[in-house]
Design brief:
about 240 residues; alpha+beta; 2 domains; two-stranded parallel sheet; 6 helices; about 40% helix; about 15% strand
Length: about 240
């Protein structure tokens, strides 16, 4: 019997029978290894202590929910103050908008981390301006700088918007260009006794504290507006600009 020529045999190497068997067993081993690794990870996850999910930026809301009755919110906010001796951030909401000088006087020695400004125009919805307050600077000067930054933001809005929104932004920019009663809320840091005293200060409408350990970037602020007397509903927007 004659032996087949070399070129008539099945190819050796990676694509020959032996190579295909090696590749097949290699794939089986790889699958088994992946299953083992997945099982080890699953067991580790089950045995590890469950950690609380991290708080996303802007997830901790301070202020009334949309449509919430003002009386209900005021009662709820009073229950959020921290335990004695424990510092926390708190949103201080005012009966009426204050000048930067008066707002600094109201805060007293408490550190202020953020100011919420809004230029009041009768029956016109104006923007809330959230301005960080640097630590270490004299508070009255820092708040006045925040007022100026709010004006620059309003100018930028006027440049990019059209129609009534642009007109409102221009009116805001003009109002912020000079000292104005436009501070409606402050984010302060303090312990229970200091926050209690602040809540009892004339002109302060509500003090709502964040959970202990929450930082300023984690806050989502929606302060109660001075004009919202019954519920936290949108204000009318039919007045002349």
């Amino acid at each position: 019997m004659t032996r087949p020529d070399r070129e008539d045999r099945e190819p050796d190497g990676l694509f020959g029978p032996r190579g295909r068997r090696v590749l097949g067993w290699g794939a089986v081993v790889l699958v088994l290894m992946l299953l083992v690794v997945a099982g080890v990870r699953a067991l580790s996850a089950l045995s590890a202590p469950t950690a609380a999910p991290p708080v996303a930026t802007g997830q901790v809301r301070l202020g009334p929910e949309s449509g919430e009755r003002v009386a209900d919110y005021l009662a709820r906010a009073a229950q959020t103050l921290p335990a004695p001796g424990t510092p926390a951030l708190a949103l201080v909401q005012l009966d009426a908008a204050l000048t930067t000088t008066d707002a600094a006087t109201l805060a007293g020695p408490l550190p202020v981390q953020q100011a919420v400004l809004r230029l009041p125009i009768p029956r016109v919805q104006t923007a809330l301006r959230f301005e960080p307050i640097p630590s270490g600077a004299p508070l009255a000067a820092a708040l006045d700088t925040a007022r100026q930054r709010a004006g620059y933001a309003a100018e930028a809005d006027a440049a990019r918007l059209t129609g009534r929104p642009a007109a409102v932004a221009r009116a805001e920019a003009q109002g912020y260009a000079q000292p104005c009663a436009c501070v409606i809320a402050l984010v302060v840091e303090g312990e229970r006794a200091a926050l209690d005293r602040l809540a009892a200060t004339p002109g302060v409408r509500a003090v709502e504290a964040a959970p202990t350990g929450v930082t300023a970037p984690e806050l989502a602020l929606a302060p109660l507006l001075p004009e919202q007397t019954e519920s936290a509903d949108p204000l009318p927007d039919d007045g002349p600009v």
